[in-house]
Specification:
five-stranded mixed beta sheet, globular, binds zinc ion
Length: 296
């Protein structure tokens, strides 16, 4: 049990806050700055989704929310929902507003939407999802290369419509400014997350997967392969399954549409958010979900 509580993608404090919303306020005063943000995010998420906090005084005001949000020293982006970076304060403000006063669900694996349209790659681009793995990983480089390969294979095994390709010739110069690849895999240490990713609509300058080498290979029942498959799910446009109302917790926002019936065991569902699986393995519904949006 403890192994998955300690696992990847989000800090233990967020999980505690998520599982026990009533203790969040006390936690706010005792956790580190990085953890506090996640506790606050969880607080207003719980409030907006199930406790009717929207518009009431229990939710933090924006300055409090902002000051307690983890800002990644790697590139200054704000990290919300465990492993999702926001590029600007404008986006952070939009995020705050959405959580405080969510727009209605579009209807009931779920895909991200931007201005009402699916946030996915074109059919042509989906066949050419190139990435580099930074040599800054040092001794971990080959293990990250292998885990990325295994993570990508999970989605490629579900559909021939997506194809991740590691371009090793770019590993020595692997950053968001390398235009020879679509995105980069880069190391980070001391972060609040195990890994973080981006969505297809993200600008090239923010299109990287950051891997926390302090945790990626020591996250209990969550393997590095599965963590990176989860992150690659985001890069394909998929959202956290636990933002769906059926989860009853960990609400994020309503900017998505469902591709399958709710799946508590989805690879995109944090186990600690009332998930039905203690790991991040891919399910048949995940495979059906990607086929429904990218084809088979
Ligand atoms: Zn995630």
């Amino acid at each position: 049990m403890e192994s998955w509580r300690r696992g990847p993608l989000a800090s233990q404090s967020r999980w505690g806050a998520t599982a026990f919303p009533n203790v969040v306020i006390q936690m706010k005063r005792t956790t580190t700055r990085a953890a506090t943000v996640l506790a606050v995010a969880a607080t207003i998420s719980m409030g907006a989704s199930s406790l009717g906090y929207a518009g009431e005084s229990d939710a933090p005001d924006y300055p409090d929310f902002k000051s307690s949000t983890y800002q990644d020293p790697a590139d200054g982006q704000y990290i919300v929902n465990g492993d999702i970076p926001l590029q600007s304060e404008e986006q952070l403000r939009d995020f705050y507003q959405e959580v405080i006063s969510p727009s209605p669900p579009t209807t009931s694996l779920i895909v991200n939407q931007v201005y009402g349209s699916d946030d996915i790659w074109s059919a042509r681009q989906a066949q050419d999802l190139t990435y580099c793995v930074s040599t800054d990983f040092g001794a971990d480089h080959s293990a990250v290369v292998d885990a990325m390969e295994a993570g990508g294979n999970q989605w490629e095994g579900a559909t021939a419509a997506v194809d991740f390709t590691h371009d090793a010739s770019q590993d020595e110069n692997c950053s968001t400014s390398n235009n020879n690849v679509l995105f980069s895999i880069e190391p980070v240490t001391g972060a609040s997350y195990v890994a973080r990713a981006f969505f297809p609509s993200s600008s090239k300058s923010t299109r990287n997967v950051l891997v926390n080498t302090d945790q990626i290979f020591s996250s209990g029942s969550w393997t590095a392969d599965d963590v990176l498959a989860h992150e690659l799910g985001h890069t394909l446009g998929f959202r956290h399954e636990h933002t769906r109302p059926e989860a009853g917790t960990c609400f994020e926002d309503n900017n998505w549409r469902p591709l399958t019936p709710y799946d508590a065991s989805s690879i995109m569902h944090y186990p600690q958010c009332n998930g039905a699986s203690s790991d991040l393995s891919m399910t048949e519904q995940d495979r059906e979900g990607i086929r429904s949006v990218y084809g088979s």
